[in-house]
Amino acid sequence: MTACSHLDPAVQAHAGMPDRERIEHMRVDRWIDYPRARQALDKLEELLLFPKRARMPNLLIFGASGMGKTMIIEKFVRAHPPSFDESSGIHHRPIIAVQMVASPDEGRFYHRLLSVIGAPPPTRSTIGQLETQALRLLQETAPRMLVIDEVQNLIAGTYREQRRMLNLLRFLGNELRIPLICLGSHEARDAIRGDAHLNSRFEPYGLPPWRHDADFHGLVGGLLRSLPLRLPSELTDSALKRLAEVNSGVTASIFRMVIDLAVQAVLTGTERITPAAILDHRVAVPPPFVTA
């Protein structure tokens, strides 16, 4: 079989594999570079290298569910893995990433933070004891950035609970003198605004839904080059426009639809995604909720 020049070089070898293996490869998570994500990674890199000072800059990455916030952070974390200091026996972690608990609770948050660091928290600990242990271990592991995902969970609590958690985040940033990176939906902005001092230190960075433009063409082109179909998929403007609109511009939904169509192209032997396949595709709509 001739080389599949329409695919990325690293993917071309997969095009000759059996159908089952190609489909499995299509369904794994993948990183597709695009300008807005690259800008976010550049901002994160700049903050990681920022010198310690009393008032550290922070970043809030927000957008609808499925826009790729977590994948951006995961890629950034992979680029900065932990290192082991043989002289001290300590694993230094440049980035500590933790998910906000489902509702604001200081004790549960410290338990989760200690678990991420790799230290089991003491049983029946007070908030003060958990705070002391977390700070000591964070100073030992020497992170240069603390990432908190799903920050919109803060608004699930009472006003007092929200204030206490925001005070905790501000305290960690001040004490460790490292940037805080918060991720969440649009409601995450409202959560951070609950503390004027903390809010003033955050730069908001949104990931808006995709529109039918040059950047969207680049995103879909990059995705198609990563899927081991044996023939090139040449999509029309009308097909690309529908792909964006029918998925409300949400990255995860767009990827899911394209990958589903690629799998069908393998199973049917067409080996390409056609404009007609996109224009005729029906996105499943959840059934209406019916009360008894």
UniProtKB/TrEMBL annotation:
KW Manganese (keyword) present: no
Record-linked InterPro entries: AAA+_ATPase, ExeA_AAA_ATPase_DNA-bind, P-loop_NTPase, TniB
Keywords on record: Plasmid
Domain of life: Bacteria
Keyword set includes Cytoplasm: no
Pfam families named among the record's database cross-references: TniB (PF05621)
Domain AAA+ ATPase as annotated: residue spans: 55-289
Protein name: AAA+ ATPase domain-containing protein
Organism: Agrobacterium tumefaciens
